[in-house]
Design goal:
This protein is 50% helix and 19% strand.
Length: 204
């Protein structure tokens, strides 16, 4: 009998943090639970972080995921928002790591998750939610779409890790965390520049 895989996906947030748990049976994902961690009434920033830690740890201990996937913070213009979101994600990761056991942790960019679920990197939350129900054969109507976003993270991780081609492609390119394609393009452009302008390169 094949070993079962249980994946928890988390969509970090500072007011609502979505989560979803799936179990892989006979190569197919089955939904176990989804929901959101509601923090919008907690005013103190440090108390929010404590609440995130306690809830994520409790979810990890309750559902015993073998793998946990997180949506990585997006790069925006509001530095304070990015900092708060990064802290929330960091505390959630620490909560998972605090639970005894060898749990695999991965991160995926928002656009990579939307692409994996809907085929479009710019899909709306509503479109993601609709596809989640279609893929899992569920009828989830969550109060907040952060919940289906959390489930989307879990499914994105399963689709990515179970695909031979994407699994063979290492690092940030596979996870869509950014930098990889640009870095490769920049590297290619630099190599072309060197070949075209050998006299411009100073050698020590």
């Amino acid at each position: 009998m094949a070993e079962s895989i249980r994946i928890m996906g988390i969509d970090p947030g500072t007011n609502y943090m979505g989560y979803g748990v799936i179990e892989i049976r006979d190569g197919k994902p089955e939904a176990l639970v989804l929901g959101e961690i509601d923090m919008h009434k907690i005013r103190d920033a440090h108390q929010k972080l404590r609440y995130i830690f306690d809830r994520v740890r409790n979810l990890t201990e309750t559902y015993h995921p073998t793998e946990v996937a997180f949506e990585s913070p997006f790069f925006g213009t509001n530095v304070q928002s990015m900092l708060k979101l990064g802290r929330a994600q960091g505390v959630a990761i620490a909560a998972v790591l605090s639970v005894e056991g060898d749990i695999c942790i991965e991160e995926y960019a928002p656009s990579r998750i939307k692409q994996a679920i809907t085929g479009r990197g710019q899909a709306t939350k509503e479109q993601v939610a609709t596809m989640i129900n279609s893929i899992l054969g569920t009828d989830y109507k969550p109060r907040k779409l952060d919940a289906t976003d959390g489930m989307a993270v879990a499914l994105c991780h399963w689709f990515t890790s179970s695909n031979v081609l994407t699994r063979a492609t290492a690092g940030d390119k596979r996870k869509g965390l950014g930098g990889d394609s640009k870095a490769r393009k920049g590297s290619s452009s630099w190599e072309s520049f060197i070949k075209s302008n050998p006299d411009r390169i100073k050698r020590q």
